[in-house]
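Provenance

Sequences were taken from public entries as deposited. Structures were produced by running a predictor on each sequence independently, with no templates supplied. The record for RagB/SusD family nutrient uptake outer membrane protein from Sungkyunkwania multivorans is shown for reference.
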Amino acid sequence: MKHIKVVIVLLIMTSLSSCGEDFLDPVPTSSISAENFYQNEEQLVAGIINMYDGLQGVNDTRSDSNHATQMEFYVTEMRSDNTRTKNGEGEAAQFDNFEVRPTNGLVADHYRSFYNVIFRANTVLANLSVASEENRAKFEAEAKFVRAYVYFNLVRLYGEVPLVDRVIGINDTDISYTRRSLTDVYDLIISDLEAAVEHLDNTYRNRASKAAAQALLAKVYLTLGTDHLEAQLLLEDVMASGYSLEPNFYDVFYNENNSEVIFSIGYVSGQADDSQNFSAEWLNGVGRTVGVNYVTNDAVEALNNLGGNRTDVSIRTDPVQPSQTQVTKYLPDGADGGANGRTFDFDARLAGNDWIVLRYADVLLMHVEAIMADGSETSVPAALNSFQLVRDRAGLTDPVTNITKQELLDERRVELAFENQRLFDLIRFGVAVETLSAFAAETGGSFSSTDLLLPIPQGEIGLSNGRLSQNPGY
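Predicted structure for RagB/SusD family nutrient uptake outer membrane protein:
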């Protein structure tokens, strides 16, 4: 990670761009150095915004940039049975066939991007002394939420990872290159989220909030399978906090910061520094790369059978290649794609669609999961009510009297399709090996249980002089 730290130091000094709201637009007014930057609360707030800027990622074509959230679909959705490449070409096709290599540049991008964000969060935590007494606990909680969110993704994708819980120097290689146990990583995640729950409120959608910390902590408990009751209580507190389902499913994604969004990563249309390109990449001929995150036949069938009115919002037949199906849940800025899905009245590569990390429908379905706990079904009225709310919005209004584990998993698939949840859901429900093995057999891939984890990037192992071990199967 030595090469990362040099980039990060430069970024933290020079890249204080916005995340899509007025308060996310600090303007540097003087020359800044590492020694004199954090002298007052205003500068610390700039550092806080810099964390979200790191989550945004950079909308460019450089292979050494940190693209962060903008490319996370590769390592999540495209490693499930939901999406694939259109033509089976390039590094992205390794995800199609479950043949990801340690040298894969997309994996390396993801890994370094999110350790970059951890560095930014740790930098805020190291400089809390300049904050006012009134705001110090809130700023600390915000940085801990971001750190926990990133580590939760990393530990689910890579398994045991280096646990960097403070700002480290270039010679701190023991921390940088020592993989810590899952217990240690999850202990930090839980501790950070508990602090966030205690000290945050629900002011923001594009920044950390109490509800976001509660929902994420509930998902952590469900992932660990250790405390379903605590997860249920956390989710019920979110359900009593004023969030609600948008009546129209389309508006969830194109009426930003709506009543359903709990935490999203903000982007601004038309601005190179703050826009995103992923929604264009999923189309035909408009993105930095094209024809990725195309819909599998398996997912098309699931949406056609179970999606209700969500299907037309989520997918469409590719107007250029009718044998293919595109994700449309995040069409750039809500556009219809124009003639043949290829022309826009704006530059689709500079789209402003926010990326939704947590929303109320996810909370309702996790609520069912928490009540079901280790069982295979539930008819508890509270669970039925949460499940029915999601289905009613989809136009599926037949009364539900019992919910099986498979029905819950299916509902999560069509409700949260292409939101980078499917792989994690399969793993959490304990059916990933069975489901993905069958999917690979049908599509010509080669899946084994070791494919549930990504490889540690080979470049990181090289920098560690072999101290950083590789995951099994790579």
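The longest helix spans residues 133-158.
The first strand starts at residue 83 and ends at 84.
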